Amino acid sequence: MAAPSKKVTINGREVSIPTGLFINNEFVKARGGKTFEVEDPATAKVLLSIEEGQPEDVDIAVKAARKAFESGWAESDPAWRGSLLLRLADLLEKDQEDVIAIEVADSGKTLKQAQTIDLPGAIGTIRYYASWADKVYGRTASTAPGTFSYTLREPIGVCGQIIPWNFPLLMFIWKIAPALATGNTIVIKSAETTPLSALKMCELIKEAGFPPGTVNLVSGYGKTVGAAMANHMDIDKLAFTGSTATGRTILKAAASSNLKKVTLELGGKSPNIVFPDADLSQAVDWSVFGIDMHAGQVCHAGSRIYVHEDIYDSFLKAFTDKMAAIKVGANFSGDTDQGPQQNKLQYDRILSLIEAGKKEGATLHFGGQPLPDRDGYFIEPTIFTDATSDMKIVKEEIFGPVVVIIKFRSEEEVLALANDTRYGLAAGVHTKDYQRAIRMTKKLKAGTTWVNMFNYIHWSMPFGGYKESGIGRELGGEVLDNYTQVKTVFFNMDVPAPNSA
Ligand code: NAI
Ligand code: MG
Predict the structure, then answer these.
(1) CATH number at residue 349
(2) pTM of the entire structure?
(3) Low-confidence residues of the chain: pLDDT under 70
């Protein structure tokens, strides 16, 4: 049964949002007859209710994706797939005001960030993979004389994709664009607290002309829809972004079901190291951006800042001044730097980690309080000093605007401190000494390293984790390895069988 779109007024703009699950290019009601509420984290008020998928809906979506894969998409002209992606990028560009309004209200991110980071990132990523579609090559090899051998890079099949709530639009695009370019079909699940931009994108996917069943979206919860996907016997590959704990659960589910190929992009506790020869004011700016982008709800956030003793006092003073100047508030107003935390659970988790920091004996140097007189989930930018490696606030991902600043004396010491973590997503170094920069980036155990910047990502460069921060890479040409499988073809010209007379 068809599910209607609803009109919602967001920041004075009336937008139409589909409410159904998206299966076979139709927005449909969920089988279980349930809906769930979607909240605006800036006001804690309900925006609208949408259909809530169940495992049964996952089965229906997988069947649709399988049929689309087998009935032409997998073997379609790659240039055509590229042209559909280009059309999708154009439609997103045309409807950007609606998509941005939906994304800002649903996720709590600032208008400024949605306009300058999320939207251009989404459009750029789609166009990048559109142009990859007809450039995925196999290779030929010099095997024995009389034989000719080559490889084909074929799509994997039905790809399950599970995304988090911090970058709902961008993660949707990071996942679908490379999978579609390479001829896979998709069953995707948005996060239960941020399902709206994915619904809007499905409307555009249909308009762009993708065949029915190519992309299917089942909104819903992790324990039901997500678990059904991870355990599904007919999903060939699963790509996940979210917490390390859930990543572990998914890997186990894959192992005990059909050994679907799993890639994971998980948490982090990224070190950000400032040497005395760095440009201090630039280092401060990037370090504040490193922890405060999207109120700290960024997997590669620079949440552990290590500052050399020679500049510790001056860095701390300038950094604190800059954190104090951050404008926290209504995310739709153009000059707001930091909006609310994305959801109540995350808000509570951050506040409890701040409490843990105080209890374990770190110094709360700045902030640490929720914003008074607000219904939404706002927390002040927060700085801890005098923290040690055994404390929760130094070890655990806080995923909020909370940073620890730690003093160091030597390069050797700071390397050991920086790498003393189970995570390995990203790391940054601020220095003007290029030899030190090269030495440090080589020795830091992280999938992304920055020199004199932080939190910079580009679709043309791979992104992913060392250690418990993940398996596989997103973006760049590298992600295409996760969405293709290699077939070897041995071709005999005139070689007799080894057992011929
Ligand atoms: P989560 O990892 O549980 O949620 C991410 C996605 O996984 C959501 O779509 C959720 O519905 C789904 N999911 C949850 N349980 C599942 C299961 N058993 N099987 C399949 N899918 C499942 O993250 P959560 O609970 O929202 O946040 C907890 C912490 O995770 C945060 O405090 C933060 O530290 C970290 N996190 C990291 C992210 C990243 O970008 N690496 C993004 C979101 C959270
Ligand atoms: Mg969870």
Answers:
(1) 3.40.309.10
(2) 0.98
(3) none
